[in-house]
# Entry
Amino acid sequence: MYREQNMFYQIKQYINFRFKSTNQHGVHSPFVYDLITKCFYDKTKYSEYNKILEYLKSLLKNSSRIKVTDLGAGSQVMKQQYRSISNLAKNAGTTNERAQLLYRLITYFKPTNILELGTSLGIATYAMHLGNSKSNITTIEGCPNISEFTTEQFHKFKLNNIHLINGDFSNEIKALNSSRYDFIFFDGNHQKEATLYYFESLLETANNNSVWIFDDIYWSKGMTEAWEIIKQHPKVTVTINTFYWGFVFFRKEQVKEHFTIRV
# Structure
């Protein structure tokens, strides 16, 4: 029943999004205009896309099963405790299209330090690594068995500069010692209170050029409420709503403005 309600909510919100959203036309901010035209809408067929697809295909072909511990909102599709890697990749992993956008974003912004909340099978992590192999990536995963599997994947694909931490997001965030992050991808606990807690806890790590992305801002009514609260925070100047992701920027030179963009 809850899952059906959420699906109905998401469909309704997507229809509203389509009516409100636009492309680069009418965007007067040079920063946002360049981001849309040079990154969001970049149609270049980068060779690294093949590597992302190879990584994804290796997961989709993996029929081994692992015991999954959900510390967050969990999957809206899969509720069984033991799940196959292939089903996790299909239903809970980052899609190929979004992984490609993550690659372009990292290439575009060239962040030095990246934080990811919700490693899962490492699809997004790998895409970000390919975007800038010099970036230091800290990624946190709550499920110990997924953490173990994904660590092995990183070794298999010879990925460096990635520090995977297994633990509860709230506890691990406190232990990050206020490191500075240029790019944070929030892709884990899709609950209102938790999302707002992570946002508030990590604010001190943000700088003028930081890029924060919140996954599934229309996951539920609570997640959308969290997104609306984040948008109004005094330190937040620019936001971009692409329906499945919410982008947050802290650029002090920008006038506070919210964009709804089709990607």
User: Anything to note?
Assistant: Confidence is low (pLDDT under 50) at residues 74-78. Residues 2-20 form the longest helix (19 residues). The chain is about 45% helix and 15% strand. The longest strand covers residues 136-141.
